[in-house]
Design brief:
Gyrase A, domain 2, globular
């Protein structure tokens, strides 16, 4: 039993180190002046079974995505390992690690009325998208006013926070991305991250930056009430929220049952 426990703890520690290095390696290509950054360690989610539970049954994806898979040969369930994303105004960027078929990706772009030159492809649309390989197994993607060629050089954005090293995180979120924040007027930005707690839950942790300590106290009070009395409260038992100066920090054990329902668009009862 002790030997098994040691193996599990060692695997968890290795996974965190590997996740941290993967995120750092991909992040250095994103622009340094974006408002929002996010990271997903999809390979870890796949190995732990979380991805399959959240993605739902195969074949239920929308027709456009199924057509993309058929033409490009890229299916996130099998071929996506990790992705970092950033948004700067109307420009959206992603650096993706995985297994790609460059010839089929180019063929997909050309079939979609796009153009390709020197491995760079641009596909018009609303919004337009572009992509290009950074190196073997890593591609740059951009949409909106962004261009994938911006990511070919290293930019190394400086990010700090407790979320770094977690397999899923996002930082710089505001009311337009998280409608709940519209009811918390003192909040300036949100960072959140998820850690698997197998077999049936994950832990959601977050930090809310507020205008001042007074608004942080009010935010913590309102959130604590919501978590205890809201319609999802039975899925969030054991949650903690507290104010620390201008910051509000919290942790929520979240049942995978809830995430599955939200991912599938099902109303949770």
């Amino acid at each position: 039993m002790l030997a098994l426990l040691g193996l599990v703890l060692g695997w968890l520690a290795w996974s965190r180190v590997r996740t941290s290095r993967t995120a750092e390696d991909l992040l250095r290509h994103l622009p340094g002046d974006a408002q929002i950054y996010a990271f997903l360690d999809v390979e870890l989610m796949r190995r732990t079974g979380v991805l399959e539970r959240l993605a739902g049954a195969r074949g239920t994806e929308d027709a456009d995505y199924q057509r993309f898979v058929a033409q490009s040969g890229f299916n996130y369930r099998e071929h996506l390992d990790a992705v970092v994303m950033a948004r700067r105004g109307t420009a959206q960027y992603a650096v993706i690690a995985g297994r790609f078929d460059p010839a089929r990706l180019e063929a997909y772009a050309l079939k979609s009325t796009g153009v390709c030159a020197a491995k760079y492809c641009y596909v018009p649309g609303a919004p337009p998208i572009s992509f290009a390989p950074i190196r073997e197994g890593v591609y740059a993607f951009a949409s909106g006013s962004g261009d994938a060629r911006e990511l070919l050089a290293a930019h190394a954005p400086v990010l700090k926070g407790d979320f770094l090293g977690s397999p899923i995180w996002a930082t710089g979120l505001g009311p337009s991305e998280v409608p709940l924040l519209q009811n918390l007027p003192g909040v300036e930005r949100l960072s959140l991250w998820l850690t698997p707690r197998l077999p049936a839950s994950v832990e959601l942790r977050f930090t809310l930056e507020n205008h001042d300590a007074k608004s942080a106290t009010a935010t913590a009070r309102d959130l604590a009430t919501l978590l205890k009395t809201g319609e999802l409260s039975r899925y969030l038992s054991g949650s903690e929220v507290r104010a620390e100066g201008r910051r509000v920090t919290g942790r929520l054990p979240v049942a995978l049952e809830l995430l599955e329902a939200l991912a599938g668009g099902t109303r949770v009862r």
